[in-house]
Design goal:
Length: about 350
């Protein structure tokens, strides 16, 4: 109803009574989740395990966040988005990615020291120890597309809140235990913003190899203050990626194999499956932190891929079955930890 969409006080009060049972049910679900997560968090703390959580930079138009804070988003009088988020054409899509999330009114948010964002982070930091900040480059500048557009191609870069935003967060929250996702179209300004606050950035092994005629080289300098992934949720599994390379770019695939043999030496690792050698290559890096998805530890192919960027449906369906985990696997992981002093 329009009166609910526009949050008219009398209508909200009426619907609170009308939907009292449903509201109570969802409150109960949230209470149960909170209780169960609290137990998990306490168990992790006793086991010296830190939990990394994720905070998307944008929220959905049909979310409670947008509905209850419409003044903070770029909406028309009817509550529909005027501009939406996305990214220009990139590695994943020739037409870019049109996410469709409404953009923030950053100037409006700044008036109360980004109270909405502070609340969001305060709650998340009670649930997790470290926060991966999605699409970090959007805080420096974001891709703005008309809500009427069918692709993300015809957008423009608009300056974000930048250093002021993180300075305000530090003032209110103290230390910011962030990992920033700084992939995609990254400019010197984005790098400067990351370095100013000494946030660890993100590196991806699948993007790191380049065939240059006579040899294969790692194309990035993996700083110590970084988090190295074999692949993120947006990538194919390491096995699926390499299997496709064997067909599409056999010279690069062969060169990677020679590179790994050169870097890892001639011990037993050369007899391991290629996916496991790539995992070991990650352990041998300078990065302080490694993230290896379970699909890569298990050497699973493209059927276990987590997400296809820019698509809706058939994503986030993979589940790790208990029977896939065994002592042999844990022993191999322990061996890498010991060998590379991780």
């Amino acid at each position: 109803p329009k009166e609910i969409a526009s949050r008219q006080k009398e209508s909200l009060e009426n619907y609170q009574l009308l939907l009292a049972d449903e509201i109570a049910y969802h409150k109960f679900l949230q209470f149960e989740f909170s209780s169960q997560w609290s137990e998990l968090k306490q168990y992790a703390e006793k086991s010296s395990i830190k939990i990394i959580g994720d905070i998307p930079i944008f929220v959905a138009h049909d979310s409670s966040d947008v509905w209850s804070n419409q003044q903070l988003f770029d909406l028309d009088e009817a509550g529909s988005p005027l501009t939406v988020a996305g990214v220009p054409p990139d590695y994943f899509s020739v037409t870019g990615q049109l996410w469709g999330n409404p953009h923030y009114k950053w100037e409006e948010m700044a008036k109360d020291d980004y109270h909405w964002w502070r609340q969001r982070l305060e709650v998340l930091l009670k649930l997790v120890d470290i926060v991966r900040v999605d699409h970090f480059r959007g805080f420096e500048a974001f891709w703005e597309v008309s809500a009427k557009a069918e692709t993300a191609m015809d957008g423009r870069w608009v300056k974000g809140p930048g250093a002021q935003f993180f300075t305000v967060l530090q003032k209110h929250l103290g230390s910011l235990p962030f990992i920033v996702e700084d992939l995609g179209f990254i400019t010197p300004e984005v790098d400067d913003l990351k370095q100013q606050f000494y946030f660890p950035g993100t590196k991806v092994l699948q993007f790191s190899f380049c065939y240059a005629g006579s040899g294969c080289y790692a194309t990035f300098s993996c700083e110590t203050n970084s988090v190295l992934y074999t692949g993120t949720h947006d990538n194919d599994t390491i096995k699926g990626w390499h299997d496709k390379l064997l067909i599409a770019e056999p010279e690069l695939a062969a060169c990677i194999q020679r590179c790994l043999q050169r870097e890892l030496g001639t011990d037993d690792s050369i007899y391991e499956p290629m996916c496991w050698k790539l995992v070991e290559f990650t352990y041998d890096s300078n990065a302080n932190t490694l993230i290896v998805p379970m699909q890569d530890i298990l050497c699973l192919g493209s059927e276990a891929r987590m997400n296809f960027p820019g698509t809706v449906g058939n994503n986030w369906g993979w589940r790790c079955r208990k029977e896939l985990l065994n002592r042999e696997l844990s022993s191999k992981l322990a061996g890498l930890v010991e060998k590379y002093q991780r």
